[in-house]
């Protein structure tokens, strides 16, 4: 019955994988002997042959079996690693634009080479997206030989550099990497296969759309194919934080310190309340009263004072909800966010809307300036631009729904090479946290004495250190892995599988770490014996000390055990005092527990409770999915506008028909002005003087509509055609950029407030759409106005370096009145833009480029990015 | 979708005498009212005779219960997941209501001799159960249809279905009016009144008081500290209750009269009392109008306040970091908003009451009885029409982006 249903419904994930293994694998295997008979040149000749056949009209699907066979053979020769059959299946799933769920240790990196090779044959470039810079550097070096043998180039994107794989390069200087030759970013983008993090790809896209000349752009126009590693992390967890390129804005900072001092004096329940589900904090009447007394203000919510409210709320959130060593760490006087899902430090990322500053004030750090958004995109919308998108991860099935609904990605579970043997015990549930920790310590001690390696997962840096302290007192030797000592990560992980080793880790040891039983230095003498010993003891044992909100994160931790057919086991210890239990349905379980009358460290092992925990997790996951989907609905509106603006911007960059556009803009502007002033039907009421005055602002009188052409021609004569082109281009770009930035802010504010329309029984989304459209129309009109009014008042003066510095530094560009400094400093701009710095800085003479993720800080003595050639501290950075 | 609905509404349930049925409907207020919601399906006694009315009843019941029952209240605050759950409850609730209403209607029809054989014994059992089941199924089908429209298309599917039903009945009504009466002047007058009322309804439907809301967060954005774009206000609608008070009021007012009519044929005291009530609640009597007016006003207040409390606006506002300038969040804001809503609802309630009785006044003046220009249907039409228009506009705008370079 069930199978019948399945047949009707269509391919289930299992069936899709079965089908592939039935058809594809024999085909590839049949080609294996032939491929082995070829020499190196013969293999790389295959690439040429495939490319020829592609241009002759064959499709990628036709080439798939052969290309996979070639890729497999190349891997065998260069790395000595031959793709398993299941890895072929994984590769085919990726090539289909789906998500391949592959367990830990199944060799995802190797799998990706096959579809990457196949799709790179078209010459449009394949992007392999990794979670961090380290992997983006490791993988091309590791997999580079395969592609090199087959005659494809491999690129690597880093935070502030780019490389091309070069097998000859073994001797590198300080700071360089073996086999990676430094290259310009745009060269890296020309590579057939490019490795990089999602942030780099996204930010490059945004920066490209801020570039002032084609030379400043690095990406190719088309986004052909992307393989996203750890796809659930990138497309789901990370997708909650949009990429933002921002610059500084002026805000007073004293308030932060004031309220950071006051916030600890407020009491929970008396002065403020926390909503359980949304975790939102709100002040009570008493709290407001106290604040008003302390700040000597009559009414905080009055027109003069309301700007203080946000400082108070931020200070309170910083005080109460942002916990040091859990949510952030303080490093060299800076507040650095710790990623909730991976436990890693996220330097460069900042909380928005003043929260980060509030935390800085709380910790007594130097407060960095508020920022204004220059460009933004969500990862969802960035990745949806790819013609074909695929991904791989160990945990996708729980999120299959979201992948399908948002990205149209199906999830296919790829079978493991060897059957997985991991014993998963039901949770042990304790009434109190104290009891839980005591039992955890005991359990660790017993296991490690027997020689079995143990990996303990904790949810925060703080708890990992507390547990470490307990273990020390108990006399258990162990290693701690958290964001504080991440430089030792590789060594700790390498040893984690050795007999008797105990590793306490945050979520860092979840995703992507590969723990080899007996230690990862497999060439070592006696490794075989130790490996066997550990296997006999039951392999790695994973202990989870708290459930995470998302099941995926739990599963990632569990997945460290039972790698590649090794034995392994896992168990979670849970206390009713855990955050998740308190927030969701803890009371009911607590009642049950109190009936049973258990003592603190007597655990309850109960399937029903375990189930209710995972149903609580499903609830939270659903909640977050809704939030993300909601956000995306709204972001779609902005996305559409962004596409329009960016397309037009790139057309201007390319210099297409600039003059015609300008003339048309002039014409419409004249028409609109005329219509405004001559509204009345009676000639007597016409405001002819007003009209003439307005027109006079545009260009010297006498002006008639048909002389606009002549004026433009005259201007062109003065400047020379090429200069005119440059002027026009810069003028248009500048106007797009400043107004677009304003528009982004407006749209953000609109989004905050639009939810209120639900009260009036109107769909907020519909209101947002129409209001957004109105704002966009206004944006267009303002741009037109600015360009037409500026054109005849500016000239290009390449030899006036000082002028740019007098720019007022108003990064947002208030948009009132003509701003001609942008156009007047164009001579140097192209040089300035060769470096991948936000061009906004160059346009407006603003102070820093501060991309929250991936932006780089400018040293005080470094040359100023505005291109003036002065030191930063003397130029734009003078007031920082 | 709507075509399917219109088609289905012409499938009759088994064992109905159509001719007698029509006759009945011309003489009965309550049924006429119900017919409105089923879009003429009731007077044809089709399988969707009940229309989406049971669903509407169910959702109103749920809405009124939500503030009363704590567990429901909690669900309603759980966001999307909770809403889904409540929605499912509404669906379940619809079934028994549909069954009850279906049965009630069969009884009603039996009493007017359209149907024979209603009951749960012997021969009557099978046809009765079949009729009830088919009617319930028909209702659920419509609800599903409506939800499909909501999901795939534009606007609220359920209201669209009601809307379609009303509009579909229009041509019939108008031709009927013209054929019955040669009084062109009267009809012209009537049409003018109709247009005026519609204009009035549009006006009041759209009228709202804007309470400006300030978000602390927004001052951190952009260089311009105090500028806010136009969208940040609470639109408190004058008529936030919509047509629901009208439905309530009419249902209550019609009921005693209808019941009384059945007993009016009795002799003796019961008959006298019944006749008295029947006269009192006769739609042509001024007492009836006054009663309708008063009830509508009361219900408007009642419903608006219930719904308003439920939204716990001030709490949500505070949680999102918003506040009304000059007024503290929490209780003071709540009190302020309540004061405003009471004040503007006064106007709204009087307006609704007026709209409710204006058709009667109109037919009194023009003497055109045939056209029952129901205020409720007008209200629904205007509401749904405007909503759909807005949705369409937003959709169209999405396709109509051009930058500065055309």
Automatic annotation (TrEMBL), chain A:
- Can you name a GO cellular component term? cytosol
Q: Where is this region: Disordered?
A: 796-863
- Please list the cofactors this protein needs: Zn(2+)
**Low complexity bias locations:** 802-813
Record's Pfam families? P-loop_SecA, SEC-C, SecA_DEAD, SecA_PP_bind, SecA_SW
GO biological process assignments:
intracellular protein transport; protein import; protein targeting; protein transmembrane transport
Gene Ontology MF term list: ATP binding; metal ion binding
Q: Which HAMAP family match?
A: SecA (MF_01382)
Q: Which family does it belong to?
A: Belongs to the SecA family.
Tell me the protein's name: Protein translocase subunit SecA
Q: Which organism is it from?
A: Geodia barretti (Barrett's horny sponge)
TrEMBL record, chain B:
UniProt xrefs under InterPro entries: SecY, SecY/SEC61-alpha, SecY_CS, SecY_dom_sf
What the entry lists under Gene3D superfamilies is as follows: SecY subunit domain
The UniProt entry lists the main location of this chain as: membrane
Instruction: Supply one GO CC term from the record.
Output: membrane
Q: Which GO terms describe its biological process?
A: protein transport
Any stretches that span the bilayer, and where are they? 47-69, 90-109, 124-145, 157-179, 185-204, 233-255, 287-308, 340-362
Which UniProt keywords are present, listed alphabetically? Membrane, Protein transport, Translocation, Transmembrane, Transmembrane helix, Transport
Q: How does it sit in the bilayer?
A: Multi-pass membrane protein
Q: Any idea where this protein resides?
A: Membrane
Task: Give the family this protein belongs to, as stated in its UniProt record.
Answer: Belongs to the SecY/SEC61-alpha family.
| Role played | The central subunit of the protein translocation channel SecYE. Consists of two halves formed by TMs 1-5 and 6-10. These two domains form a lateral gate at the front which open onto the bilayer between TMs 2 and 7, and are clamped together by SecE at the back. The channel is closed by both a pore ring composed of hydrophobic SecY resides and a short helix (helix 2A) on the extracellular side of the membrane which forms a plug.
What protein am I looking at?
Protein translocase subunit SecY
């Amino acid at each position: 019955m069930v199978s019948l249903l399945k047949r009707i419904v269509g391919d289930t994930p299992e069936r899709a994988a079965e089908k592939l293994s039935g058809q594809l694998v024999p085909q590839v295997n049949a080609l294996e002997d032939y491929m082995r008979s070829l020499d190196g040149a013969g293999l790389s000749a295959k690439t040429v042959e495939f490319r020829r056949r592609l241009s002759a009209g064959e499709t990628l699907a036709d080439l798939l079996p052969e290309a996979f066979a070639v890729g497999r053979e190349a891997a065998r020769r260069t790395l000595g690693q031959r793709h398993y059959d299941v890895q072929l299946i994984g590769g085919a799933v990726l090539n289909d634009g789906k998500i391949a769920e592959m367990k830990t240790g199944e060799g995802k990196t190797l799998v990706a080479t096959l579809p990457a090779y196949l799709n790179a044959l078209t010459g449009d470039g394949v992007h392999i997206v990794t979670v961090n810079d380290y992997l983006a550097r490791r993988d091309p070096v590791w997999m580079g030989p395969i592609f090199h043998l087959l005659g494809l180039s491999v690129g690597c994107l880093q935070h502030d550099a780019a490389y091309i794989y070069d097998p000859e390069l073994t001797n590198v200087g300080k700071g360089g990497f073996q086999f990676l030759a430094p290259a310009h970013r745009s060269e890296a983008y020309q590579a057939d296969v490019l490795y990089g993090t999602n942030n780099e790809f996204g930010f490059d896209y945004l920066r490209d759309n801020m570039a002032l000349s084609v030379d400043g752009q690095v990406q190719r126009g088309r986004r052909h194919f992307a393989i996203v590693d750890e796809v659930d992390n990138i497309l789901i967890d990370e997708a909650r934080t949009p990429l933002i390129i921002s610059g500084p804005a002026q805000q007073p900072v004293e308030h932060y310190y004031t309220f950071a001092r006051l916030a600890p004096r407020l009491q929970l329940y008396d002065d403020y309340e926390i909503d359980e589900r949304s975790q939102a904090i709100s002040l009570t009447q008493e709290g407001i009263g106290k604040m008003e007394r302390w700040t000597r203000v009559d009414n905080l919510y009055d027109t003069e004072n309301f700007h203080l409210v946000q400082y108070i709320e931020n200070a309170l959130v910083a005080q109460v909800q942002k916990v040091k060593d859990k949510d952030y760490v303080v490093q060299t006087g800076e507040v650095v966010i710790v990623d909730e899902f991976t436990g890693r430090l996220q330097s460069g990322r900042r909380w928005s809307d003043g929260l980060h500053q509030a935390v800085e004030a709380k910790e007594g750090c130097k407060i960095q300036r508020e920022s204004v958004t220059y460009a933004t995109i969500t990862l969802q919308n960035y990745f949806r631009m790819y013609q074909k998108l695929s991904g791989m991860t160990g945990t996708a099935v729980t999120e299959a729904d979201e992948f399908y609904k948002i990205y149209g990605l199906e999830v296919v579970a790829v079978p493991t090479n060897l059957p997985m043997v991991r014993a998963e015990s039901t949770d042990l549930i304790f009434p109190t946290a104290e009891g839980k920790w005591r039992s955890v310590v005991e359990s660790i001690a017993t296991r490690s004495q027997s020689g079995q390696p143990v990996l303990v997962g904790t949810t925060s840096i703080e708890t990992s250190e507390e547990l470490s302290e307990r273990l020390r007192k108990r006399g258990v030797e162990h290693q701690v892995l958290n964001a504080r000592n991440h430089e030792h990560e590789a060594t700790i992980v390498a040893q984690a599988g050795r007999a008797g080793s105990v590793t306490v880790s945050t979520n860092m040891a979840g995703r992507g770490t590969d723990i080899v039983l007996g230690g990862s230095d497999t060439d070592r003498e006696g490794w075989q014996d130790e490996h066997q010993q550990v296997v006999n003891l039951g392999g790695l044992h994973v202990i989870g000390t708290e459930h995470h909100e998302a099941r995926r994160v739990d599963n990632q931790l569990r997945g460290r055990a039972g790698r590649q057919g090794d034995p392994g086991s896992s168990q979670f210890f849970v206390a009713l005092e855990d955050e998740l239990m308190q927030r969701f349905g803890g009371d009911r379980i607590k009642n049950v527990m109190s009936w049973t009358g258990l003592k603190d460290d007597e655990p309850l092992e109960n399937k029903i409770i375990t189930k209710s925990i995972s149903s609580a997790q499903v609830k939270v996951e659903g909640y977050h999915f809704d939030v993300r989907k909601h956000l995306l609905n709204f972001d779609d509106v902005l996305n559409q506008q962004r596409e329009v603006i960016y397309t037009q911007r790139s057309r201007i960059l390319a210099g297409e028909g600039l003059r015609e556009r300008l003339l048309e803009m002039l014409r419409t502007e004249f028409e609109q002005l005329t219509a405004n002033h001559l509204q009345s039907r009676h000639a007597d009421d016409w405001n002819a003087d007003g009209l003439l005055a307005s027109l006079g602002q545009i260009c010297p009188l006498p002006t008639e509509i048909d002389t606009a052409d002549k004026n433009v021609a005259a201007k062109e004569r003065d400047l020379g055609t090429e200069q005119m082109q440059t002027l026009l281009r810069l003028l248009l770009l500048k106007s797009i950029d400043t107004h677009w930035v304003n528009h982004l802010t407006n749209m953000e504010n609109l989004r905050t407030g639009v939810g209120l329309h639900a009260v009036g029984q109107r769909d907020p989304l519909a209101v947002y759409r129409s209001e957004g459209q109105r704002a966009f129309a206004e944006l267009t009109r303002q741009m037109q106005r600015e360009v037409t009014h500026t054109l005849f008042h500016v000239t290009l003066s390449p030899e006036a370096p000082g002028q740019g510095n007098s720019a007022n530094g108003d990064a947002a560009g208030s948009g009132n009145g003509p701003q001609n400094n942008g156009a007047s400093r164009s001579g140097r701009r192209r040089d300035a833009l060769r470096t991948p710095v936000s061009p906004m800085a160059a346009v407006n003479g603003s102070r820093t480029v501060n991309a929250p993720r991936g932006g780089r800080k400018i040293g005080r003595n470094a040359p100023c990015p505005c291109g003036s050639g002065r030191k930063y501290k003397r130029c734009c950075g003078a007031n920082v | 979708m709507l075509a399917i609905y219109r088609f289905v509404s012409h499938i009759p349930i088994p064992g109905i005498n159509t001719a007698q049925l029509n006759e009945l409907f011309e003489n009965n207020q309550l049924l006429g009212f119900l017919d409105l919601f089923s879009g003429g399906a009731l007077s044809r006694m089709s399988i969707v005779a009940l229309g989406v009315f049971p669903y509407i009843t169910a959702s109103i019941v749920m809405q009124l219960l939500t503030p009363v029952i704590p567990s429901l209240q909690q669900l309603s605050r759980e966001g999307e997941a909770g809403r889904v759950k409540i929605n499912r409850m509404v669906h379940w609730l619809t079934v028994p209501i549909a069954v009850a209403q279906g049965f009630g209607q069969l009884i009603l029809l039996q009493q007017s001799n359209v149907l024979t054989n209603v009951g749960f014994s012997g021969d009557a059992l099978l046809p009765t159960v079949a009729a009830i089941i088919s009617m319930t199924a028909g209702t659920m089908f419509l609800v599903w249809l409506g939800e499909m429209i909501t999901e795939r298309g534009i606007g609220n599917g359920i209201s669209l279905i009601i809307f379609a039903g009303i509009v579909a009945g229009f041509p019939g009504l108008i031709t009927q009016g013209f054929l019955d009466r040669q009084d062109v002047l009267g009809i012209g007058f009537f049409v003018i009144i109709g247009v005026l009322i519609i204009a009035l309804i549009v006006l009041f439907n759209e009228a709202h008081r804007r309470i400006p809301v300030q978000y602390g967060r927004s001052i951190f954005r952009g260089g311009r500290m105090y500028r806010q774009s136009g969208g940040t206000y609470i639109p408190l609608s004058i008529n936030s209750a919509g047509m629901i008070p009208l439905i309530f009021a009419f249902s209550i007012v019609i009921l005693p009269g209808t019941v009384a009519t059945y007993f009016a044929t009795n002799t003796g005291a019961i008959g006298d009392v019944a006749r008295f009530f029947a006269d009192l609640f006769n739609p042509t009597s001024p007492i009836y109008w006054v009663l309708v007016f008063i009830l509508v006003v009361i219900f408007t207040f009642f419903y608006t306040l219930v719904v308003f409390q439920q939204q716990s606006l001030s709490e949500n506002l505070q949680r999102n970091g918003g506040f009304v300038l000059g007024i503290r969040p929490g209780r003071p804001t709540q009190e302020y908003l309540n004061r405003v809503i009471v004040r503007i609802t006064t106007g709204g309630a009087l307006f609704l009451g007026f709209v409710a009785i204006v058709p009667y006044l109109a037919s009194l003046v023009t003497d055109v009885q045939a056209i029952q220009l129901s205020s409720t249907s007008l209200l629904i039409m205007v509401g749904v029409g405007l909503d759909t228009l807005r949705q369409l506009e937003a959709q169209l705008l999405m396709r109509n982006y051009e930058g500065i370079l055309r």
